[in-house]
Specification:
The structure holds 2 protein chains of 2 kinds. By secondary structure, chain A is an all-beta fold. Chain A is built from no helices and 11 strands. In chain A, the strands form 2 sheets. In chain A, strands 2, 4, 5, 6, 9, 10 and 11 form a 7-stranded mixed sheet that branches. By secondary structure, chain B is an all-beta fold. Classes of the chains: A mainly beta, B mainly beta. Chains A and B meet through strand 4, strand 5, strand 6 and strand 10 of A and strand 3 and strand 4 of B.
Chain lengths: 112, 111
């Protein structure tokens, strides 16, 4: 157990639907990062939050949004889902001044 | 962001040392060199990081070239459990961090 908890582990939904992925960072970590990994593809950075504020944005589609709540957990919202959104979504967290990033085990999203 | 170049794949025999190279010729002076690995169906796992000096931990050693344009991750005795994709990532600790994973090196360990 890395200390970063992602739920659900698996999610199957239909095209056009909306889903929410949840991430609880490691205790004490203020930063949360979201990544997307499609089949046989590399990890694509989506977005970073630090203590509730958006800090960095990567290749995140307009149909996707995220937020970090006061208790530091984060949610990634994916809407108008397309088949190509099927992927593993990873969350990572880090502490301020920390040199290591801890990843969760991911949510596998399948859009049918 | 500094770009990295790693071999697509490498092979090693079990219990032999493995040297995984990474070229990061555009690295800036304040970028730390991080290594992560990803086992099949799992999230990436931190392995080691360094700035200028060579580093050792229980998992691996990191050798950094004097000009910092390249580094080598050293697994002293490869096991079957070390079969994974290994990523070398220059990371700059600033206000917003956008650390980018390249394709990495897929390490196969033969029994």
């Amino acid at each position: 157990d890395s200390g970063v908890t992602q739920t659900p582990k698996h999610l199957i939904t239909a095209t056009g639907q909306r889903v929410t992925l949840r991430c609880s960072p490691r205790s004490g970590d203020l930063s949360v990062y979201w990544y997307q990994q499609s089949l046989d593809q590399g990890l694509q950075f989506l977005i970073q939050y630090y203590n509730g504020e958006e800090r960095a944005k990567g290749n995140i589609l307009e149909r996707f949004s995220a937020q970090q709540f006061p208790d530091l957990h984060s949610e990634l919202n994916l809407s108008s889902l397309e088949l190509g959104d099927s992927a593993l979504y990873f969350c990572a967290s880090s502490a301020q001044g920390s040199y290591g990033y801890t990843f969760g085990s991911g949510t596998r999203l399948t859009v049918v | 962001d500094a770009k990295t170049t790693q071999p697509n794949s490498m092979e090693s025999n079990e219990e032999e040392p493995v040297h995984l190279p990474c070229n990061h010729s555009t690295i800036s002076g304040t970028d730390y060199i991080h290594w992560y690995r990803q086992l099949p169906s799992q999230g990436p796992e931190y392995v080691i990081h360094g700035l200028t000096s060579n580093v050792n931990n229980r998992m691996a050693s990191l050798a950094i070239a004097e000009d910092r344009k390249s580094s080598t991750l050293i697994l002293h005795r490869a096991t079957l459990r070390d079969a994974a994709v290994y990523y070398c990532i220059p990371i700059r600790y600033n206000y917003g961090q956008n650390f980018v994973f390249g394709p990495g090196t897929r390490l196969s360990v033969l029994p």
